[in-house]
Design goal:
The chain has 504 residues and is α/β, with parallel strands linked by helices. It has 15 helices and 17 strands. It starts with a helix and ends with a helix.
């Protein structure tokens, strides 16, 4: 073994495949000694390129293994600590409440469009988009260019000064809103956005009580924790004062199926029984994300919005996951139910991974905060605003909403056919590229197949597909990839899922 190859091992090339490659390429490149940068770069590029290529190939002992679509990108060589070292650092220095999705964790060091790469250069299809956060694609060139360009000019200033980026971005966003939703507040996260929306509702109406939904998720701050409708997201402490959770209009598990108005009657009952008869507002996702990609029953929001406004409240639409064309049929999720809210919150895909969120409301509601000072240090900073503007432009120019509709319809068709083959699939639901696949042990009882879901998810990861999961019992696959996800990607995902389920 050459001195060069030995040195390369010490820098993290530890797998058998990589060790053999190091020896092979060392001989092939004539690198038999020394510490030259050129030699190390050649070796690194050769090994990473070959590993990335091999990761897309079927396993040698399985000719039926699905093949990932080709993709013209070579990941950069990785020279950092190993996955084992990173896991050790994480356990020592990060919060113990953090969790990992897989038994054998994946370390991601690079992303490009709908694909992710681990430290060895292996490529994965990203079907979860950083928890529905990467909208137009990992490191999309137009977004990256806009961010880098602004970084070279001005990284940070606040709203106590004039800056063109935040002002132009607010206009760009308001132009995409229906009705009189024309005033924008920029913040940093979905939790912050929902906190502000609830504060606005209470200030504007002079009322306190807020109606939420069971199975909902709106954030992890002390304020938004109370809105959540799953115990798994509630810390054992006093929280939720003034929040009332209505029956969830779940077409699959709900008692009234897809009959929205029947569920809405529970909201009227809550207002009359659990509040003074007047409320501050109602907040809901239009497709519940963390809850398992659950769409609201047909006709639900029109009925509820009338009830809430009749009780003096305002209506808040949480578009943190459903916005910007992801549902395919509409730019905003609430439009699927034919309503216009009074306040809209958005985050995640708004910035394609940047810490960016927004609240959009009417001038009348916005004025309710003007009696006191309001300030957010990082909200709408120039870099995030430049990135957010670029996202809007990419969604438009690349026609991502239409793309989500077309690819999503194809994926639903494929998943529905898969459900006909595997009884463990109890439901396929959602819209566009915000889909859910619920696994159950029995289709009649709908008993959640929690263990089986985890096993299928692990198997799919091993075959190159990174899935998300959700629902109270963790038995729902959340398929919410970057919106550049293609038909070929959809076919690959279904083929991998088919094989993984068959292995149960």
């Amino acid at each position: 073994m050459s001195r060069f190859t030995e040195q390369y091992y010490s820098k993290g090339v530890s797998g058998l495949r990589e060790r053999k490659m190091a020896g092979f390429f060392g001989k092939a490149l004539g690198v038999t000694g020394g510490n030259g940068l050129l030699g190390r770069n050649l070796m690194s590029q050769a090994i990473n390129s070959c590993c990335a290529f091999m990761s897309s190939m079927p396993a040698v002992n399985s000719t039926a293994m699905p093949r990932m679509p080709d993709f013209a990108h070579t990941p950069a060589p990785y020279g950092g600590p190993s996955a084992e070292e990173v896991l050790s650092l994480r356990k020592q220095f990060l919060s113990p409440s953090l969790f990992l999705h897989f038994k054998k964790p994946v370390m991601i060091v690079e992303g490009k469009m709908q694909y992710l790469y681990d430290e060895r250069g292996r490529r994965y299809l990203d079907a979860f988009a950083g928890i529905v956060t990467v909208s137009v694609g990992h490191c999309h060139p137009a977004v990256t260019e806009a961010i880098n360009r602004q970084n070279q000019l001005l990284q940070h200033t606040t709203t106590i000064y004039l800056n063109n980026q935040v002002a132009e971005y607010a206009k760009d966003l308001a132009d995409r809103m229906p009705g009189n939703l024309k005033v924008v507040y920029f913040v940093n996260s979905g939790s912050e956005a929902n906190d502000m929306a609830i504060m606005l509702a209470r200030l504007y109406t002079g009322n306190w009580d807020v109606i939420c939904l069971r199975n909902a998720y709106h954030g992890m701050s002390i304020g938004t924790m109370g809105t959540c409708g799953q115990h798994t997201w509630k810390q054992p402490m006093p929280q939720g004062f003034g929040y009332h959770h209505a029956l969830n209009p779940d077409p699959y598990r709900g008692v009234y199926g897809d009959d929205g108005p029947r569920y809405a009657a529970d909201v009227a009952d809550l207002i009359s029984a659990a509040t003074p008869g007047q409320v501050a507002g109602f907040v809901a996702e239009t497709i519940q994300g963390v809850g398992g990609a659950v769409p609201l029953a047909a006709g639900y929001l029109p009925e509820v919005y009338k009830m809430i406004r009749g009780a003096g409240g305002v209506c808040i639409a949480d578009e943190v996951q459903t916005g910007f064309g992801r549902t395919g049929s509409h730019y905003w999720g609430f439009q699927r139910q034919g309503v216009i809210p009074d306040i809209v919150t958005m985050a995640k895909g708004i910035g394609n991974g940047l810490p960016l969120a927004a609240v959009v409301t009417t001038p009348e509601i916005a004025a309710s905060m003007a009696s006191r000072l309001h300030f957010n240090t990082y909200g709408g900073n120039p870099v995030c605003s430049a990135g957010g503007r670029a996202v809007l432009q990419v969604v438009d120019t690349e026609r991502r909403q239409q793309h989500c509709a077309e690819v999503g319809a194809h994926l639903v068709e494929r998943l529905t056919a898969l459900a006909a083959k595997h009884d463990i699939i109890g439901d396929v639901r959602g819209a566009g590229l915000m889909l859910g696949v619920e696994l159950v042990k029995d289709r009649k009882t709908k008993e959640p197949a929690k263990v089986e879901t985890a096993a299928v998810m692990e198997s799919m990861k091993d075959m190159g597909v990174l899935m998300g999961k959700g629902g109270l019992h963790g038995n729902v696959f959340r398929i919410k990839p970057p919106m550049c996800f293609s038909r070929k990607d959809a076919d690959f995902l279904v083929e991998v899922m088919d094989l993984a389920i068959s292995r149960l």
